[in-house]
Design brief:
By secondary structure, the chain is mainly alpha-helical. The chain has 5 helices and no strands.
């Protein structure tokens, strides 16, 4: 999992630069009225990362992660990514993914702590109860 976190951070750094290099008009261009612009695709990635953030947070206190279902077209439109400045969409995408990496690290620590606690409980049951 540490490799996944490191890779996520590297991809976010790399693509922040690549997204910023795209001209505003190209980033906002909708190829067809019902198709997303590049800006809206990045907005969709923001929504996806926010859903994952919720999963990482809930995973710390719930045994089963929640099933998150959402209408992606509605959410992209409702969040107004197409009307936002390119720089703001990219900054939000970078921030939500940076926070996601932080929560993944936190979850890894919580999972490790749970394993240690369970191992200690098993040890105590074996050596002191039977």
């Amino acid at each position: 999992m540490k490799n996944v976190i490191r890779e996520l951070r590297a991809l976010v750094a790399e693509y922040s630069i690549k997204f910023n290099a795209i001209h505003d008009s190209e980033f906002s261009n909708k190829p067809l009225p019902h198709k997303w612009s590049k800006k809206e695709v990045v907005g969709h990635l923001i929504d996806w990362a926010q859903n994952n953030l919720r999963r990482f947070i809930v995973a710390q206190y719930e045994p089963q992660p929640p099933k998150i279902v959402y209408d992606q077209d509605f959410r992209v439109k409702a969040n107004g990514y197409q009307q936002m400045k390119k720089e703001d969409v990219i900054a939000l995408w970078k921030l939500v993914n940076d926070v996601s990496a932080m929560y993944q690290e936190l979850c890894l620590k919580v999972i490790t702590q749970r394993k240690v606690i369970l191992a200690r409980q098993r040890y105590n049951c074996i050596h002191f109860n039977g």
